[in-house]
Amino acid sequence: MIINDNDKISSFQCFVLFVSVMIGIGIMFMPASVAKTAEQNGWVAVLLGGMLSFTVFLLISKITMSNPDVTFIELLNNAFGKILGIFFSLVYVLYFIIFSAFETRLIAETAKEFLFNLTPNEVLIITFLLTCAYISRYGIEVIARICEILMPGIVVIIVILSFFVYQRLDFSNLLPVLNIPYVKLIKGIGKTIFSFLGFEVFLFFMPYIRRKDKLIKSALFGFLVTVLLYEVIIIFATADFGAKEMQTMIWPTLNLFRDVTVLEVVIERPESIIVALWMITTYTTEIIFLMTTGLILARIFNTKEHSFFVFSQLPLIYVLSLIPQNISETQKFMDYFSYYFATFVVLFLPLVTYTVLSIKKKVKKT
Amino acid sequence: MKSKRRTFLAILLVFLAFFLSGCWDRVEIEDRGYILALGVDKYDPSDLNKYESSEYIDLDRKTQKFSSEQQKPDIKTDQKGIDPQTKRKVKPPLPSSKNEYKFAVTVLFPNLRTIGKDSKPDEQMRFLFVTSTNNVVGVRNYLEREINKRLYYGYLKVVVLGRDLVEEPGYVREVLDGLNREGDIPQNTFLLVSETTARDVLNTMPLVQPVTGIHLFEISKNASIYGRIIDTPLSEVVNNFINSNCAVISRVEPGIETLKVSGAAVFKNFRFVGWLDEKQLQVYKLLMGKAKHTFIDDLKYKSTHVPFITTEIQTKKKIKSEKGRLKIVYNLRIEGEVIEFVFKSGYKVLDDPMRKYIQNELNNIIKKRANELIYLLKYRYNADVLGIGDFISKRRAKDWKKLKKNWDDELKKIDIEVIPDVRLRRSGTIY
């Protein structure tokens, strides 16, 4: 597959892609699930979770940099042979499809709770998926440009709204610092992982990046922005509600921004704005996932275009997204997903591939 | 190939247009009834009889407002307690043979048409409905049988709890859960406890602002500025109940044509345990660091009262351990001005013997009042509404682990010292 030059992304676009793909629906309830284990030290867990994810990303980039002109699919093929390689590539396809299904279900749940009480879930899901698929048919550069337009606006609006939240915060709710057993803190880190996942799409973007030497730098900034935004949200939520109250909430982030009143009349009850903003962040995450799946399938079947595969996965995502009974079951599945499946796909499989590849090279040399 | 693509796109567009044709659940603004106030009472059939007595109906008629040209004093209320002039329903539904209801919920929402240009002068400004139910927030489903509006909680301003209701911890918990769970209800809705019933409060039409919900909301909002009222938004009350099972909710006194917010109710384990009066509340706000301004007028010099207005208040809490016992020290730094004295009295308020005297006396007054309040809260109510347990758990997590098992008794053992430091800065434009 030939990659033409206008389908390559600059290092700034890389940074934007990092932020857009990581900030998804996870942050809507992440403060609550972290507070259940790490209590008022959630912000430490988020910091450590971000550092952990960045370390994993460094490993991934190290592995893909070993042959930067091909995607991870070719590396898998080289390492395990054609049949096993395709099998593992399909595992990645499954991974992204399940991930998309989670995002879809959760955005539908949020929209139903706060915006469209009477609209059926199915309609919300279908409209969301079709809108995402429409843009995902285009190449990586178009998507990066879309994210370039959408991402800064979202971050800026969230930061502005945070100023209006600030006046009612009580930072003594963050005390005492680190008085919990370390096991609980580590469990808390585990809860943050889902919110950080998404950076693994760069396993498949390597050939599209113009300046490969600057990838680590843009990744660093991408992680920094994400971690900072998450930190602002989790510290504000803890300071506003306190760890005990936050544990009882389903959507702490939404509750945090919901009762912002700006000058009595200018903005009252901005929850529809917030839900819409989060729909956009989830939208950017989802389009990247849909496109990645399309790219992987295009590589497997060796076709020029990936646009057909984008639509072919939608029915599967739709069906999967309707499986969980309710939001708490969704969160339970998400935990299993991020603990086992994500660890296998993001950390374990690349590492094994790298080991096999390096052994094979050694075999060839001798 | 190209034509296929176009057909596909056309189908996609039609499909999207089909779904994107607008929200399914949009409601026009005229069709909504914005609930501004919610009153919750314990359902008590014997109490309801009161609302059928002619005495009450007379009283109720006196409180009605009419514009001068519309004044018709000889209105007769019909037997069902519905006033034919205003169609106000003041009587809750009659008790049935099985009185299974838990709550009597009063809902108040304004008439949006009176705001518009083509409003008629005789139109009533607000609607009041009373229903007996077993669930508080779900009451709108029952009310929508008789009201042609879609009731909406999004702009709820105040929730008034009746005096009878707050005696029952189970009922208070049910109400709180409903308010906290419903996504539409803003978390900055103010909670109030009525001195009598919540229905009485909402039935009153205050003179200046006849829509009771807005009236109470605006008074509570001013609370952060003036010293005699406390604002108790839902989020804070819920947070206090979660953290310490205790809370303070401000009190409202219904009158004939006025509603007064003053004092507060103290809750322990979701049960009402007693009132705080205005003066106790002032000190409570000082200790909680909630007071921005306060007004102390107990100071007397010879036969003259010397009122003192504060301009700046800083509250600092410290925790010490003395002989194995924990001691909480409140450092209050209060700056302010004397706004009245005697004309041509010869005393210079800002100069030294007088200034020292005023400062010392004020310190004593605040200290005395604080000690009375602390005694009341510690021994009589035994309610940790000052958030001492919460404070210890934050600063001394290890001590808290031992204390929290038996906190009700341990609270009595904890020393609380208040050290006020009043500074007289100004005295108006003359000495």
From TrEMBL, chain A:
Q: Which UniProt keywords apply?
A: Germination, Membrane, Transmembrane, Transmembrane helix, Transport
User: According to its record, how does it sit in the membrane?
Assistant: Multi-pass membrane protein
* NCBIfam families linked to this entry: 2A0309
Membrane spanning segments where?
Answer: 12-30, 42-60, 80-102, 114-135, 142-165, 185-206, 218-239, 273-296, 308-327, 339-357
The major lineage groups are: Bacteria, Bacillati, Bacillota, Bacillota incertae sedis, Caldicellulosiruptorales
Instruction: Identify the PANTHER family for this entry.
Output: SPORE GERMINATION PROTEIN A2
Name of the molecule in the record: Endospore germination permease
Q: Which Pfam families match?
A: Spore_permease
Q: Where found in the cell? A: Membrane
Q: Which family does it belong to?
A: Belongs to the amino acid-polyamine-organocation (APC) superfamily. Spore germination protein (SGP) (TC 2.A.3.9) family.
TrEMBL record, chain B:
What is this protein's name?
Answer: Ger(X)C family spore germination protein
Membrane topology recorded in Swiss-Prot or TrEMBL: Lipid-anchor
Give the chief site where it resides: membrane
- Spore germination GerAC-like C-terminal domain sequence ranges: 262-428
Which residue windows does the record flag with biased composition (Basic and acidic residues)?
71-81
Q: Which residues form a coiled coil?
A: none
List localization entries: Membrane
Key word tRNA-binding present in the record? no
Name the source's superkingdom: Bacteria
The chain positions of domain Spore germination protein N-terminal read 99-253
